[in-house]
Amino acid sequence: MADIVNLNRGRKKKRAAQKEKSAAVNRAKFGRTKAEKSLENAKREKLNRLTDEHRLDED
After folding, report:
1. Residue 38: count of CB within 10 angstroms of its CB
2. What is the DSSP string of 16-50?
3. Where are the domains of the chain?
4. Could you tell me the CA-to-CA distances from 48 to 34, 38, 41, 59 in Å, in that order?
5. CA atoms of 8 and 2, how far apart (whole Å)
6. pTM
7. DSSP code for 27
């Protein structure tokens, strides 16, 4: 005969796993250090400045 299984435990584990997956995505998305953010901003500004310098003027 099969053992009795508490379904609430299974639901709780499933919910915890889903929350952990969501947390991992958020850590990757938002969990950057200030140095990483400033480096990315500097790279973006450099790229924008470079492309602006190569534009043709509408004379």
Report:
1. 11
2. HHHHHHHHHHHHHHH---HHHHHHHHHHHHHHHHH
3. 7-53
4. 21, 15, 10, 22
5. 18
6. 0.47
7. H
